[in-house]
Amino acid sequence: MPYKLNIFSKILIMLILLLIPIVLLYSYTNRITNNVVQDQIQSSNLNQLSFFMHQLDADVERLAMSPVILGSDPYMREYINRSDSPDYDVLKEQSRMIQKLSLQSVSSGWVNELTVAIPKGKQVLSSSIFVNGTDVWPWHRAIQRTWTYEIREGDKGIGSFIREISEPIRAQTVDQANVLYQVRFSVQNMVNLMDVYKQDKRSDPFLVDGRNALIVNSSSNQQITNAIREQLALDGDLPNSGQVQFEIDRQQYLISYVKSTQLGWYLVDYVPVEKILSPITMTRKLFYTTIGLLLVMSVLASFMLYRNVQIPIGKMMQSVQKVKRGDLSARIHYKAKNEFDFLIQRFNEMAEQIQVLVEDVYAEKIRSREATLKQLQSQIHPHFLYNSLFFIINSAEMEDKESVVAMAQNLAEFYRYTTRVEKQAVKLSDELDLVGHYLNIQHLRIHRLKYDISVPVNMLDEWVPRLILQPLVENAILHGIERSVEGDLITITGEQDENWNRVIVEDNGAGLNEAGLARLLEQLHSPMSDDIGCGTWNVHHRLYYQFGEGSGLTFYPGEKGGLKAVLTWKRGAQMNLPEAGGESKR
């Protein structure tokens, strides 16, 4: 059967055909605008970088004039000419010259050092206290007449630029000159300027020379900076200024560069092309978003033409699927205001009736499970009753009154607790009291028996099924302590984590071998039969019924040679226990 377009599809296709010419026209005009704006922004970036380079050169040029000014100073000339005169107070004049050097140094906007070296007398005067008066000076090196970049020892890896002027001017090395004037400034001055420029422009400027030496700003991206430096080196000699585009890490960058007339270095700045075009991109996205909103509004308008048919059917299909998956609370909350209202109302009534019937069956199943739990509990018998009575008889014949009283009191407390079946949920503290009475009775019978109970106070108010610990203690005595001559200790410890409670019952008795332990664990998860002892099986299944997946009983080899039984149940789950709201009476 051929597919037929419905009204909604036809209207939607018509709207798309109307929008296509508009989108094509905008794309053409946007491409032209994009090229024009990109050219203007690129030109603006280069002009701003050139202006910044001009300011930097101006500062460097002012520093370059410092040696010339020093050489013209009359006091400096007098000191140089008379420093070896016997009637000349050299120390006083040295102090005066150092003060003059310091004042002229701080008069500049950049941090710098001014130094005067006199090779004849091996004298060095400087505005820096670390250089002034030093006896270690490179007297035999060449004179640096142009700005030279170097990293001086002791400057913690921060480079500096130096420039020197000598008298006479023809001197090639320091020791050939009568006097040497040196000015030095740290590259930190340039770093600070680049930091300010970066804040204003949101860029990442750096300086590079022909030998690939690099001066970067404080927060430079080293990976991108190194990649740009390598690309510029591949291009050979660069013009004094210009712009190129490189692709770095799959992103296109616009690189602008300007050469310094003073230093001969290149000031380089880069910016992602995507960032340059961000205003145009934003406008384009706004346009396409508007077109999309118009399309959505058109779709909604066409959808309203038949919403009274499609939406009610969709709601009914969704609710039927929920009921099929077992969600009987599914209802259709929709007013179609037409014939579908009748179907929706009847569906809700039908789902409600099914839910009531299923909940009745489920409640009956819960009551049956509770009856099963009580039946399981009733199977827990006090196997030691007769032995306890015979103990009382024997102690009475031996006129051991204290033993008779102790056995009778503990036995009375034990049976008063075990015969109260109206409450199936008790606090862990009540179970521990019962176990204490039971162990006292066993201690009267088995004098070597010792026990230790250590449970955190936070666990004492946790809810557990009645008679959940006593079968484990009884099992530890009968199958562990009594079967081992050396067995004499039972420990009961409690621990908690974020989600679970655990009580561990451990003895140092005979224990089980690997095969016996595996058989015991297999019996815990098997259906109840005559071949399986009811004590531990009941404990495991009662915990599992009450607290769900993850709860129950398991066994491990004991650390002291016996057997370790671990009870696990959910923490704070007392609301799921039957009759958990009442307090246990003692």
Could you explain how this protein is built, in words?
The chain is of the alpha+beta class and 586 residues long. The chain is built from 16 helices and 17 strands. The protein has helices at residues 7-64, 66-72, 74-82, 90-106, 188-201, 222-234, 273-276, 278-303, 307-324, 340-378, 385-397, 401-418, 428-445, 470-481, 514-524, 534-547, and strands spanning 112-118, 123-126, 148-150, 160-167, 179-186, 206-208, 214-216, 241-248, 251-259, 266-272, 425-427, 450-454, 463-465, 489-496, 500-507, 552-557, 563-570. The strands form four sheets. A five-stranded antiparallel beta sheet has the order 2-1-5-4-3. A five-stranded antiparallel beta sheet has the order 7-6-10-9-8, sandwiched between helices. Strands 12-14-15-17-16 form a five-stranded mixed beta sheet. β16 and β17 form a beta hairpin. α1 (7-64) runs antiparallel to α8 (278-303) and α11 runs antiparallel to α12 (401-418). The chain crosses the membrane at residues 7-28, 286-306.
